[in-house]
Amino acid sequence: MIPTDLKDILGDTYNDYFFNNGRKYSKILESEGILIFNSFINRKGLINLQKEAADLKYLSYQSSSKYNVYVSEYDNSFPDDSPRNRIMSTSKKCLPNDLIPSDSILQTLYNSKAIRSFFMDLLNKKELFPYSDPLSSININYYDKGDALGWHFDNSDFTITLLIKNCEKGGIYEFFNDMRYKDGKEDYNFVEKILDKKVPGTKVKSFEGDLMIFKGNKSIHQVTAVEKGERILVTFNYNEIEGIPLSEESRRTFFGRIK
Fold it and tell me: In total, how many domains does the chain have?
């Protein structure tokens, strides 16, 4: 049962019936590669989150990183300009979990047994655990003008985000669903066409308060550069195995520290 404190911040359609029927959305996620739950947070909750994020922004860490699409080590069996080794980049500011107040709506959402159970049913997972390090479970990501997320596949097979502020121009999420492998092997040819802008991806128009779940490790995706305004996105990060921290390298990159 959804507790009263959650009912006060969730959209009207997100009731006990909804959260007890996560499995019904599994087929949609499998076929479409993405699920968007519009107005997951109601207007009152959204206003509170926007104010909280604005107040905390000065504590965020300016992060920039370069990587290949596969977020893996350079492979010298491929040329530098191959889709396997071509360099992408990301820039943003990131606030780690330990700087998000314990009474934040974000902590309430993340720690809700009902919501986590819903995610488990939807994703067909036996259990979902927080990361064992203090930084990585919930992150607030700030994208200012010029900030972007380059093309890549995620390491995890699902990603859960909550958009709490949309920019006025740019910052568009674009993806190609379930296209990573061809005949059991990496489909470098298609990835090359994507990077060379020879094929258009699916552009997602999401709104403030929307919760999004997508298959990150099979669907290549990017967020175009913010052209005007500010985009604020929360990521809810879970692990299927208890006691696992985010890698030290990733923590240094995103947060500027490991603890």
Answer: 1
- CATH code where residue 134 lies: 2.60.120.620
Residue with tokens 């076929």: 31
pTM of the shown model: 0.94
Q: For the chain, what is the HEC assignment?
A: CCCHHHHCCECCCCCHHHHCCHHHHHHHHHHHCEEEECCCECHHHHHHHHHHHHHHHHHCEEEEEEECCCCCCCCCCCCCCCCCCCCEEEEEEEECHHHCCCCCHHHHHHHCHHHHHHHHHHHCCCCCECCCCCCCCEEEEEECCCCEEEEECCCCCCEEEEEEECCCEECCEEEECCCCEECCEECHHHHHHHHCCCCCCEEECCCCCCEEEECCCCCEEEECCEEECCEEEEEECCECCCCCCCCHHHHHHHHCCCC
Domain that includes residue 228, residue range: 4-255
What residue type is 223 in one-letter code?
V
Cα–Cα distance between 127 and 140 in angstroms, integer?
24
Query: Could you read off the pLDDT of 33-78 as tens digits, one per residue?
Result: 999 999 999 999 999 999 999 999 999 999 999 999 999 999 999 9
In whole angstroms, how far apart are CA 207 and each of 12, 59, 109, 159? 16, 25, 19, 17
Are β-strands 211-214 and 159-165 bridged in parallel, bridged antiparallel, or unpaired? antiparallel
- 205 contacts: CB under 8 Å, gap ≥ 6: 172
